[in-house]
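Database export, one record per block. Field names are fixed; values are copied verbatim from the stored entry.
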Amino acid sequence: MNANQLLDASDLPYGLPAFGGITVDDYREAIELGMTEQLAAVAAIVADPEPPSFANTLVPLELSGVRLERALNVFFNLAAADTTDEIDALDAELAPKLAAHSDAILLNSALYRRVEAVDAGGEELDPESAYLLERQLIWFRLAGAALQDADKQLLKALNERIAGLSRQFKIALQADTKELAVQIDDPAELEGLSAGEISAAAAAASARGLDGKYLITLVLPTAHPYLSSLENPDVRERLSIAQRSRGSRGNEHDTRAIALEIVKLRAQAARLLGFPDYASVATADSVARTPEAVHDLLTRLAAPTAANAEQEQARLQENAGHELRASDWPFYAERVRVAQYAVDRAVLRPYFEFERVLRDGVFFAATKLFGLTFSERRDLTGYHPDVRIFEVFEDDGTPVGLYLLDLYARDSKRGGAWMSSFVDRAKLAGSDTAVVVNTLNVPKPAPGEATLLTFEQTETLFHEFGHALHGLLARATYPSLAGTSVPRDFVELPSQLYETWMLWPDVLDNYAFHHVSGEPIPAELVERIRAAQTFNEGFHLSEYLAAAVIDQAWHSLTPDEVPTDIESIPEFEKAALRAAGLVNAALPPRYVTPYFSHIFIGGYAASYYAYVWAEVMDADMATWFAENGGALRENGAQYREHVIGFGGTREPLAAYVEWRGRPAPIEPLLARRGLLKA
């Protein structure tokens, strides 16, 4: 496959790239050609002697980046999911070039004036076109299009530097995460892990030439899932320390100076744009609208959440017989869960065999709600041998697109779980089908062994598939409004809502069977699971809120307020958490600065609050489904029409209020999290 085919995949099934034929040089050539072509298209728009109109300005602007975007979508997912030294080098090389390229368009004064002229011209437009015009003006203004030339040059330099630093942060964190994997020599030290987890640790060690040893690879959040089951407290502490040491060891992979520079540069960019801080920039194009609204929500949740966590901690310490360390909390939480609710999550794993969870749970719920069907395409090839590809159809046989699933952890993949899009459904771009990918980090068992998911991994699979459905089902005319192109604090609504179906009776009863005996999950166990759903929520919400508070604290600083000493970072974080009432040595934030990839790599800068903001709507939606019969086609049709089917073609909160007749109240979220007082 050559670069031109990478840019124009019209002769390939659904536009899925033929990965086996793409080289690193092909990516470079395709991306650079895409940038050149887009700039030429923009120059032609600006040079058009005709008066500015939607047809001669907005339409060609939308078309100008289609081929470049296709190449970038594939490359960026590869750089995150299956990178190499060559790909990392190209990623670092392209970062400042792409930042400069974006600035060359969004800071183009003549282009901006044409878009303003279209707006001022009062041209009669259909609703989607009118919304695109509104969005483009917002994007231009937030990018700095209205600045004077001297300030634009400063902003360009800041953007290029930030882009390069973000890539440095990613590469350093990935390298340190790999280096800090915990080696175990004595298998007895792995007591408490399942056979599949032990075989995965053996396979990970063998892959690094450590035959006969075991390697526990690290995950993105602070609390490693194995902390809940490892019996040996010293191994738990080693693992916990490794998790919390990433990016802060003073070696070549230290990310702290990079993070501080990024924060300062963002604050400087915000000042140039006329905002007091970067949090104000981020929320200007969000559902929340202002940092004050974000602060209000976080504050309303922090106090009752911290109180819940303190009560949980007291219970756990009573069970442990000693003061809890951060490495102890998940372990004793499971012991108390078993004692109080008779729910041992390790007992659940035989009922969460991956193939059944996927086909008879995740896919089954989509069939019940939307009539979608899924057929595996073994003739198509992904970017890694572990990638599975499924063709998706409407109930009448109309093709929807392709769903790619990349389940297993590996050293070439960054931590966490995410959804990416290779192709969006945008009529103007000639695409009426989508290609989306879900990426997770489940340890891969030895050949021949079943992949048994934990409760959390099962939940994550449902969560990420909610994003995938959003990408598959959203229809738009314009590429900028296609797929999941919605504000950060709305995009998590479909994913978090889809988690609901994991334990929904009709869905759970269809997939939760013991992988050996075939027996269904016992009804009494399911009832105990549901009864325990608010258990340890003080821990889970506290660690999340703490990370959101740290994110907001960094991005609420002026340039002069950003510290320069990397050793001051822990105290800065603690001061922010102390102000929010969330300081607890046994309950560290889900992410801290040196490995907070969401805000330094993943586009969630000053927006990590988005998960809980969207959860307010998600909890309200879950209540609506429960009150209206659950996973029914008629309910799915309404949800598709009013939430995920229109992509970014409408203002999402307005669409939500139009459907529900009001904004989402906070009470359903408080009840779900066990914070609603009687």
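Remark 1: The mean pLDDT is 95.
Remark 2: The first strand starts at residue 182 and ends at 184.
End of record.
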